[in-house]
Amino acid sequence: MSSRRAEIEKARRLVVKAGSSSLTTHAGTIDVARIDALVDVLAARRAAGTEIVFVSSGAIAAGLGPLGLANRPRDLATQQAAASVGQGLLFAQYTAAFARHGLTVGQVLLTADDMMRRSHHRNAQRTLAQLLALGIVPIVNENDTVATDEIRFGDNDRLAALVAHLTRADAIVLLSDVDALYTGDPRKPGSRRIGEVRGPADLDGVELGASGRVGTGGMITKVEAARIAGVPVVLTDAASAARALAGDPIGTYFHPESPRLMSGRHLWLAHATTGHGRVLLDAGAVDAVVRRRKSLLPAGVTGVQGDFAAGDPVDLCDNAGRVVARGLVNYDAGEIPDLMGRSTRWLSRELGPEYEREIIHRDRMVVLADG
């Protein structure tokens, strides 16, 4: 841990993510001093020639004080209301803070749907690319005012990883309320700091519980973000942001486990969604989907479980119930029983040409099991 981290120091494009606890006070209001200090660090790196994409949590937390709430609400409607109030306050503060350095910011609010649907995914990618081309600092957050399941996504850690894929960033810096990854609660004796993670073996025995007062993530989402990032990731606290961005050997450094093999949309489908139901496959269909990477056709379907609509993510399972893939389904759950075991040609002839399509197209599917 004595050498500098060249991948961070020399990165031409960085994604930096800050959690709620790094941006707000204990009373649930925006901490202006901490935001200004963090923006000073980001602006300095920007002035040195690095493009910065800033992923900011804190919308819900920033709305707690104005709404008179002592703690993060549990019900979805109040969370959305808090986000509605807090997002504007948070972004106004960022606008003023970056303006001190002559920088303009652009707000980009994303949901899981934006990452999974091809047109939304491409629009997000184009928007971020154009903002960077124009010299704007994009500030990305989940659109918590309309999010449902994804509002509990995990403090934007995995969103940062997917934004890094969208923008082809060179590295990610995750800023938290702890200075590194530890084997357990860092406040307890015997907890050991982990300086580097090269693979799953380095995480053996690590307790990945949630932490923080106003955030929703914890270490588990940060480790998951590092696993899917495909680029180097540094985890440390916001107070150490300047040293982390400079490439100093602080915090925890996650070496990329694998190159970028999936699109951001497929990564989101694999790691940030849950199946709304299950489609059961025969052995031939499992082989086609998993090993040969083919689309799922009606002929290979043996059953359906759950209630889902066309366009929802569903799990594909073998005859033992093991989830082998996940994809965006083309039919409602109620339509599939009439299609099972039939060829697409027969369905087109008997039911109409609109049924001559896959249950799930291979481009909207991610394989989760070994081939």
CATH architecture of the largest domain: 3-Layer(aba) Sandwich
Mean pLDDT: 86
In sequence order, what are the helices and strands, one letter per element?
A: HEHEHHEHHEHEEEEHEHEHEHEEEHE
How many structural domains does the protein architecture include? 2
The CATH class of the largest domain is Alpha Beta
The CATH fourth-level homologous superfamily of the largest domain: Acetylglutamate kinase-like
Query: Which radius of gyration do the C-alpha atoms yield?
Result: 22 Å
Shape: globular
* Percentage of residues in DSSP E strands: 15-25%
Termini separation comes to 37 Å
Number of helices: 12
Total strands: 15
Note poorly predicted spans. Answer: 210-217
By secondary-structure content and strand pairing, the structural class works out as alpha/beta
Output the CATH topology of the largest domain.
Carbamate kinase
Give helix % range: 25-40%
Widest sheet: strand ordering: 3-4-2-1-5-9-10-8
Largest sheet: 8 strands, mixed
Family: Belongs to the glutamate 5-kinase family.
Domain PUA: 277-360
Enzyme class: transferase
Organism: Actinomadura rayongensis
Question: Strands, helices and their partners?
Answer:
Elements lengths: L5 H4 L3 E6 L13 H16 L3 E6 L2 H6 L11 H24 L5 E6 L1 H5 L1 H16 L3 E6 L14 H11 L3 E6 L4 E2 L10 E2 L1 E2 L21 H11 L3 E5 L3 H6 L5 E3 L9 H8 L5 E5 L1 H9 L9 E6 L6 E5 L5 E6 L15 H8 L13 E3 L4
Parallel strand pairs: 1-2, 1-5, 2-4, 3-4, 5-9, 8-10, 11-13
Antiparallel strand pairs: 6-7, 9-10, 11-12, 13-14, 14-15
Helix pairs in contact: 2-4, 7-8, 7-10
